[in-house]
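Two entries, shown back to back:
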Amino acid sequence: MSELFATVRDAVRALAAADPGLYRFGASHHRYALAPPLTTAELAAVEDRLGAALPDDVRAFAAEVGAGGAGPSYGIVPIDRAAPYAIAAPGNAPWTRGLPLTHFGCGYTTVAVLDGPARGEIWLDARAIGVTRPIHPSFTAFYLDWIDRLAHARWPDPHVPPGACALAAALSGYLAHCEAERGLPAGSLAGAALRDALSRLGPGAIEIAAESPVAWFDDNDRVDPCIACARLLDNLAADGLPRDVVTPGVPPRPLR
């Protein structure tokens, strides 16, 4: 095993030891566990299924560290299980085919590009809100950024515009309704009135429906929130929003 990958394994163990309650974003899903590495024959079968070679660092990680598991977003879906769900790019992207790596939340995915001038880059595919863009130059950069942010108790980069998701729109609509009920000007709900409104949203009151071009989810499958939405919920918890207000999502299809 290379020195880099040995360090990565040590870092994942350290992150797990520092978060026994699995409170960090995505940790309750991947639980800091790495799937077993793939053999040379298994990797060849993945590439045959994809019709393309894996980016070098994705292949090396899967061979030396693990096929998936602990990692960014809600964890890396083992690549042998994700391969049947390879994704076609939107028409304006400098690539045509990618391997979905993680459920980013809200039905969005992160994708390892398999061809074209962007080969090897990691893209966010959030077409449901009009966002498809590169977020890291390589899988290695993607993974090391995740380790660094968690090690320093920082949120992952949300990568989507504030308020773009359906959850933010739903909460805004609900609070506007509460303001209208009280005869308050728009955007003025605060203090005890805000806390009362938020506390009325009980456990599972909000459901996030999948909107994704990836066949990991069926239409209207319930999914977990993306990072931007999770941060919004965390901020509102200080004002009385229940921590369990969102109905838990189902796993991506390859993990069922």
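entry 2 starts here
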Amino acid sequence: MRRPQFGMQMFKDRRSELARQAQGSIFILPSHPDMLRNNDVHHTYRQDSNLFYLTGWEEQESVFVFRPGQKPESVLFVRKKDLVRETWDGFRYGPDGVTANFGMDQAYLIDDFDQKLVELIKGADNIFYRFNIDPSFDTRFLKLLEERRLSARGQYNAPVRDPNELIGEMRLRKSEAEKKIMRKACEISAEAHVAVMKATRPGMNERELHGLFIYEAFKRGAGREGYGTIVATGANACTLHYTFNDQNTKDGDLLLIDAGAEKDFYTGDITRTYPVNGKFTDTQKRVYEAVLTANKEILKMIKPGFAFNKLQERTVEMLVDTMLDLKLLSGDKKKIIENLDYKKYYPHGVGHWLGLDVHDAGSYLLKNESRQIEEGMSFTVEPGLYIPIDDKSAPAELRGIGIRIEDNIVVTKDGCENMTAKCPKEISELEAIIGRG
């Protein structure tokens, strides 16, 4: 029998905390849909993050129903135990395996979900369900909700709310156990990046470097890539979410790699940019040092009580200074910022929450104002400059340069811990190891 990968106490504690906040509510969390890649071939399955966060459950075709303060409180609907299907698709726990191994009060077959939910939903003051993850399940859920309302003769009108209102806020603050896993994910990610740096040489294909990152990450214990890896040589780096990864590197080009390893469902998210031939040109160095300066200054600013949006404001100020210095833009700095003219060369934010998802759950605003940074929060710091190859208004020597430098931090009581500090980013460090593997 396959044993659960994770100790169940952590998940029980999370459910207890959610129950404390949401007495009288019901949470309906379906598993992530099993997605076809093409014809009858499926993408490798990965569980919905909220469902995993509360249960540790990894199988598809499941629904977790949580009813704080009611009995049964935790209910999991799962596929039946089927030895024939297990021959084809792998081990299944079945309902008996769920109650024996996952700390659930009750488990049923997924085929019984429609019948059971109408009863389980009775008495709930609030229903927490997230739409637009699986449209077919949305339709199913709305049909069942209407059945419940009809059976109550119009006396049941519980609102449907997004579970991230509560679960997202819980996920935003990382426990010590989560920090430990994230440090490992970042360590694996950093070491895989270093291995790619050492192997990089002109003439290599982006796909070849991508494959090397995967190999080095998996060799160190990663379970998956945390997201679609970006390996962008030359002007490809000016496409923020470049995905082709199929061009050959050229002597004199910069290489931008945005890649992270997922360990125990938590991911790292590192970006490094460096010359394919191991030596920055004076022009590349000038742009790179400006982005690096912004990266390091933002890291120094992070501490509890500091408004998150101030990090972006300061990043924009520094990068606009660079744009003016490089003659990418001209005019009044204040007006450039007010008019968002800088977005031509810096179109994204300086960071995002990090955890179970690479863009993790949690609100950036509280009462329509930027939230303050708190101890235990984890996010990225990733300033960048991107000068399109066809930008005729930019100095010719700058065209096609795209640079991003991204680190992963967790907030401490008086600052932050850079979990990706071991991934080189100083010019001297990079030039010392690129192509030296």
